[in-house]
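Input:
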Amino acid sequence: MNDVSIAAPTQAEEQYMVAPARENLVIEARKLDFFYGKNQSLYGVDLPVERNKITALIGPSGCGKSTLLRALNRIYDLYPGQHAVGRIVLDGNDMLTDRKSLQRLRDRNSTGATVDEEPQASRAGSDLTQLRARVGMVFQKPTPFPMSIYDNVAFGVKLYHRKSKSEMDAIVERSLRRAALWDEVKDKLNKSGLGLSGGQQQRLCVARGIAVEPEVLLLDEPASALDPISTAKLEETLMELKRDFTIVIVTHNLQQAARISDYTGFMFLGKMIEFGPTEDLFSNPRAQRTRDYVTGRFG
Amino acid sequence: MDRALFRRVTNGIFVGACGLATLIALTALVLILWSLITKGIGGLELKVFTESQPAPGSEGGLANAIVGSILMCGLGMVIALVVGILAGTWLAEYGGQTTYGHVVRFLNDVLLSAPSILVGLFVYELLVAPFHGFSAYAGAVALAILATPIVTRTTEDILALQPNALREAGMALGASRAFVIRSIIWKAARTGLVTGGLLGFARISGETAPLLFTSLGNQFMNTHMSQPMASLPTTIFQFALSAYDDWQRLAWVGALLIAIAVLSINIIGRILARETHR
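Output:
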């Protein structure tokens, strides 16, 4: 049995952060708390994400890494009762500036728990459609829509732009090529996306996500339902994609994080314990908890 | 007794009992179909579809009843599908967990098992008595009231089965909730929605009691929905109770027609649902 006691984090929990230069950040969570109803699951989490890099989030189950990811494009808004308090900054603009979120932030600041300058209310911050156009997401299980491969990729584009048939054809081809799926599906674009294999479906979801040209692509354990070969292919795709996009990936697989990411954040019980360049974090972790986790002593 | 033998015997008894029950149910079904076919097929001639109902002793068909059934079931199903699918969608996607949602679901379940004759009386009070006349509109509304809870229920059930990941994936691309439901969730649930419609149609295609109070019946061909209208079930009811052999024969033909219609619409619906899903 492991001899590491897993206790609730206290104020004294060691936390280390080696953040990239601020001017290189594209999206950033600052002092973010998250609540499922009354249960708090994130505690003042900071996550700086550098442009055109892959940032990995690791940590034991239930540590809040998926929650953090889902906060970045506010997909949690689907569920009443879930809410975030803090700041999510995309290209310098606050995205948590609808009236309710601001009120919660004000309440928190007035209790003196954390002090942070307050964002200005802005329409941009409460326009979820715009936010999600700029921050795409791929889920754990492949989620192809019940329509043709072509329509799957075109779905998001159609929401924002009216394109001619030839323009749309070009976008679909380009997206599928970038997701390394084109050669496998170019002869059956009108077939249902449900007929593809799991790995192909996941790359279809990636193609669908990048077709709208987001700045950031969030991936929530995208390889956990895939076999090793499909996983390798997906990882290769992600390495290619970081030239054009910024990627944040949640993974249970430490080797995967070490292989593909530039920055890694280790989370534990709702806190960001350590964040820094991947090489440093794996070869020279500073926090005891990180060391225990990456050397396999618990988790 | 030997333990293994005992278990084999109880197992055998259980399987036997299940098989016997299935056999009984199937036998009843086969007997019904058999009597329908043997007694109805002989009278199935072209004039059944071209001529209206005859006076006793003379030649004629069921054209007026067939047209009436198609018109009233058609309008009833249009109403039931629109109301039922929207209501089921609201229950599954929006308000199902609110107090109002629970009340709606409970009332829908009550309506699901409401005796059809009560529905007929209700529509009589609502649409027949105030306007001083039986009408096909009233008949269609009565049928719609019977089919709507079935469509609502199946719609809610089938939408609830769709994975949340699908909704999240749609929303993550920036689509609104309503758009995700219309363009993704309904599509994914298509087979189930068709099944709901088929179940509703199967229920109302043979309903007699609510039509007796609303569309009444009509011995002549009529396509005006504001007038009393014939329908297969009411005509069967009238003819089967009559003392005339030729009327009774036509009643069997009418019953066979309903069975064929329900069967073929079921088959067509399933094929359509499967093909569009590919």
